[in-house]
Design goal:
Strand order of the largest sheet: 4-1-6-5
CATH superfamily: Nucleoside Triphosphate Pyrophosphohydrolase
Number of strands: 7
Largest sheet: 4 strands, mixed
Shape: globular
CATH class: Alpha Beta
Helix content: 25-40%
CATH topology: Nucleoside Triphosphate Pyrophosphohydrolase
Structural class: alpha+beta
CATH architecture: Alpha-Beta Complex
Number of helices: 4
Strand content: 35-45%
Number of domains: 1
């Protein structure tokens, strides 16, 4: 079973909407799937915070001081991925890497729920955190802080 570590960043705007990226159509895994605001594997000897910051810059063209939330283990038939989850408040604009990201936009939680109900394609790790209620609880926590 394959095991890896990834940094995940959930970018919220001042209205509490979540930025989702549409993965590039030519991406090697999950092309044209909606995904976290930014995410990616942690390189050898790289700190998870540094990886989160790097992915923000590489994928959607923004800088920021990410806030650690929690580590969550994701498992499926392909293996395990320890997700190091961070948040960032940022209203954009974004400058996405057009090779990796076809689109990025903010969505209300109601819009995301409807997209999932309508069977739009989402990365399985995002769906896992969504269906667990973790992302929704995170929004409530952010609005209180």
């Amino acid at each position: 079973m394959k095991s890896k570590n990834s940094s995940v960043v959930l970018v919220f705007n001042d209205a509490g909407e979540l930025a989702l990226q549409l993965r590039g159509a030519k991406d090697s895994s999950y092309p044209s799937h909606w995904d976290f605001s930014a995410a990616g594997g942690i390189e050898a000897n790289e700190d998870p915070v540094a990886a989160a910051t790097r992915e923000l810059k590489e994928e959607i063209g923004i800088d920021g001081n990410v806030e650690f939330v929690k580590d969550i283990l994701y498992e499926d038939e392909l293996g395990q991925d320890l997700l190091h989850i961070y948040t960032l408040k940022n209203n954009g604009p974004f400058s996405p890497d057009r090779v990796e990201v076809d689109d990025i936009q903010f969505f209300t939680f109601e819009q995301i729920a409807k997209m999932i109900q309508n069977k739009e394609k989402f990365h399985p790790e995002f769906l896992f955190l969504w269906k667990s209620g973790f992302i929704q609880s995170l929004k409530a926590f952010l609005l209180l802080s």
